[in-house]
Amino acid sequence: MEGRIAVPKYSRIFRRFLISYIVILIIPSIAGYMSYRTAISVTQSISIENKVTQLQKSQEILERRIAEVESFTRQLALNQDLSLLLSENLVDEKANVYGIWKITRDIKAYSQTNDFLKHFYIYLRNFNVIITPGNAYFRPEHYYQTSRYANLTLEEWKSSILDKTHRSEMLPLSPFINNGVQTSVITFMQSLPLDSFNDTSPAMVVTVIDEQTINGVLSGLRDPDGGWTYISDAQGRTLSLQGIKQQEIDQLSSDSRLDKKKMSQFYADDLVITIRSDSSGWVYRAGIPRHNLMENANKIKYITWSVTGVALLIGLIVGFLLSYRNTAPITKLLGVMKEQFGKDATLGRNEYDFLQGNISHIITNNKRLESELNRQLPLIRDAFLKRLIAGEFQSREEIISAAAQADTGLSMNAGYTGILQINGYSGMDSVEILNELNAARLILKQFLLESGSPLNVQMTDVGSDRIVAIFTAVEQDELEEIRKEDIEGLMNTLAESAFSEYRITITAAISDPFSSIVEVSRSYEQARQAWEYAVYMNRKGIVWFSDTQIESNTYYYPIDVELRLISTIRAGDIHEAERIVQSIIEQNTRNRELSMEMKHQFIGELKGTLLKLLDQKALMESPLFEKIKDRIIGIQTQDGIEIISREISDIIVAMCEVISSKKSDIHIKTVKQINEFIAEMYSDPDLNLYRIAEKVERPEKYISQLFKEVTGTNLSDHLEKVRMDHAAVLLKRNEFNVDEIATHVGYNSSHSFRRAFKRVMGVSPTSFRQSAE
Q1: How far is CA 213 from CA 8, 66, 549, in A?
Q2: pLDDT exceeds cutoff 50 at 376
Q3: The domain 218-293: what is its CATH number?
Q4: Is residue 171 helix, strand or coil?
């Protein structure tokens, strides 16, 4: 209920956010509307221009085809065989059959190569014969029976067409019956020879052009659901009619609202386009329905309004939600501030001034807190060192993270651990003594920090009179391994300075060297044993753990060391596993004197650890399983420690090699699967590291590192190389241009492809293709 009450209280913030989002929506909407109006106007102009261009192209095509027909008649006029026939006469009522047959054969090719010459005939007056492609009618009446004008009788046909002289004349659109099929045609007529001036000519070439053939030239002007075309000659006679009736054409031509001189104009609900041929005087007219002409514009209109409406609706919803979401934290923050700094706190000019003032106050307090944390940093470092020597960390990574958090600057390399004992205060616990010990510890620490030694020293207190010091190298490149002499020199200098200046005597118990930071806890135990030995034997100065050979009734093999050994072998790390085993054996031979019974138990524990490892899947599936198992069981506890140590090392090596080999096989199979997937999908532009990881069912970071380890090449570089190799093959074939090749090999951008190709191949794709050619 508190949240519901708070929103109305600060609703003016919500209103400000909502109004700003609405303004952001309105501004692009206005710009979009202006762009929409411009796009509609431009689309309409382009559509009209396209239709005019189409009609002009159709005119050019039709006139060129008519010119081809006329050119055909001129070629016939030059035909020698036809000229010979024209000069002959009937002899005993017998015609030159061979000559006529030859003409029918020669003109047959014209009808097969030109659809405008599909139906034509030649009338020879001297033989009274009609010649068609592949056929001859020795009486015109026979031709009239198969092909005739529906509105002309035989006599009218003879008198108006065959018995007159025609000079490139065009008969307007007329009904025509051809082999029983009725259609409409225009007729082109030319007398032969071309210079015939008499009323009757020796021969006549008549070309019958079907209306559908003409309409095919004009088909691009008509849309599937509307539109019409009309062609008339210079005298206004109809030559072609499509999509409209003659009565409508007559009405259109006589309507004063139609300006005959305008190329394009809207009449009724059609866009009428009119052009006139300069050569023939023909008039070409096309009508396009307004809804077809504006189809693209209407699509833009509908899409624009739909998208704008949906965008505004979604924008309002999103703006409302964003306003609520953005004001809710401010409202809650204001409520928290009011509760924190008082209900009666003034808001100032607005809520933001109120928040700014109080957040500044919080930042100031935060800086104070940060200063306090920095002051507490030495305590954090001290706590880290105490956890480190106590062995509370489980892994090297955990130690590194904790060391970085504490800002210790501790080197993660080899070193020593030591305990510094301030002598002479045993059993004293008065306030004055404790203060004096505290001062003595500070003096010793300050000296170690300012000694100028090439050692990194980290210190913590483990009692009122003892300091634990961890000695590591400052820089690994400068000092890879700490020498025993360096620590002895540092301790001797410390003892001399502490005694000469402050009369403080110390005893330093130093461990054996540790080779990894995870062994600091074991090293500390060695230093503590050396310190106990020094106290027990009343030794002063420096006491090394290696000098405290103490007989022990127990062997050294703690559970944390065993777990570390098991995890190391499971990881296949041969060197680390051998180092841990050697360290354990040294602990039980160099620093302890084990009885035979303890020795047998210790070796039995090591054998048990190795037998535990045999339950690994990689080992159980290996053909060496039984051999390794027999070698572990065959270790004889009565043998010398060197023989046992060497045998255990050999067994560990065999185990790690089997595990590493198994991992290597798995890695190789995974890399092979990656290579196969890339080879199959390289042309997919969406192929990336995520999809490859999804395919092999491994994490992205894992497969990236794995591919680099196995192949020595980055996965992204390999994918790019595969694509460039395929691109090189396509460039050599010379079947595609560079942009198409970029798409084939998985690039959405040809610019990106060109850069990648030059980076991999050293030359541009164009240069590569030229060199290949």
Answers
A1: 78, 12, 118
A2: yes
A3: 3.30.450.60
A4: strand
The CA distance from 677 to 668, in Å, is: 14
At 6 the pLDDT is: 40
Alpha carbon dihedral 749, 755, 756, 758, in 10-degree steps, equals 140
Report the 10 Å Cβ neighbour count for 73.
21
Distance CA 766, CA 773 (A): 11
pLDDT given for residue 580 in this prediction:
82
- State the virtual CA torsion across 584, 585, 587, 589 in degrees, nearest 10: 170
- Check pLDDT > 70 for residue 107: yes
78-208 in CATH: which number?
Answer: 3.30.450
Tokens of 350: 């607005």
At residue 281, φ and ψ (nearest 5 deg) are 80, 5
* Residue linked to tokens 């700003």: 20
Which two structure tokens, joined as six digits, stand for 342?
């008082």
Contact by Cβ (8 Å): 456, 474: yes
Q: Residue 31 in contact with residue 344, Cβ under 8 Å?
A: no
Band (339; pLDDT cuts 50, 70, 90): low
pLDDT band of 477, cuts 50, 70, 90 = very low
- Tokens 């003096």 -> residue: 443
CATH fold match for the domains 78-208 and 414-548: no
- How does DSSP assign 225-277, residue by residue? TB-EEEEE-TTS-EEEEESS-HHHHHHHHH-TTS-TT-SEEEETTEEEEEEE-
CB-based contacts of 621-629 (< 8 A; 24+ apart in sequence): 621/662, 622/658, 622/662, 624/654, 624/658, 628/654, 628/655, 628/658
Write out the H or E segment, with its range, that includes residue 418.
strand 415-422
* CB-CB neighbours of 300 under 10 Å: 16
Question: Which CA distances in Å does 158 have to 130, 155, 162, 164, 165?
Answer: 12, 5, 5, 9, 12
Q: Could you tell me the sign of the dihedral formed by the alpha carbons of 659, 664, 666, 667, in that order?
A: positive
Cβ(641)–Cβ(589) under 8 Å? Answer: yes
Q: CA 436 to CA 439: how far, in whole Å?
A: 5
What CA–CA distances, in Å, run from 405 to 19, 95, 374, 461, 485?
47, 121, 12, 20, 32
- 210-245 pLDDT, tens digit each: 888 888 877 766 665 577 888 888 788 888 888 788
Residue 202 near residue 192, CB atoms below 8 Å: yes
The Cα 578–Cα 565 span in angstroms is: 9
N-terminal to C-terminal alpha carbon distance within the chain = 80
Contact between 530 and 548 (Cβ < 8 Å): yes
The span from the CA of 315 to the CA of 303, in Å, is: 17
* Residue 282 near residue 70, CB atoms below 8 Å: no
Count the Cβ atoms, other than its own, within 10 Å of residue 410: 24
Q: Is the pLDDT of residue 753 over 50?
A: yes
Instruction: Please give the C-alpha separations between residue 111 and each of 172, 217, 683, in angstroms, as whole numbers.
Output: 22, 18, 51
Task: Name 375's Cβ contacts closer than 8 Å, sequence gap at least 6.
Answer: none
CATH architecture, range 682-772:
Orthogonal Bundle (1.10)
User: Residue type for 516, please?
Assistant: S
The CATH number assigned to the domain with range 414-548 reads: 3.30.70.270
CA distances from 329 to 3, 10, 238, 366 (A): 11, 11, 80, 21
Q: What is the DSSP letter of 546?
A: G
Average pLDDT, the chain: 79
Q: What tokens were used for 567?
A: 């995890």
Contact, 179 vs 88, CB < 8 A?
no
Say if CB 510 and CB 392 are below 8 A apart. no
Q: Domain map of the chain by residue range?
A: 2-51+296-337, 78-208, 218-293, 414-548, 559-658, 682-772
Q: Which of 422, 666, 430, 707 is closest to 540 using CA atoms?
A: 422
Segment 524-582, tens digit of pLDDT: 888 888 887 787 667 788 888 877 755 556 777 778 778 878 877 777 777 778 888 88
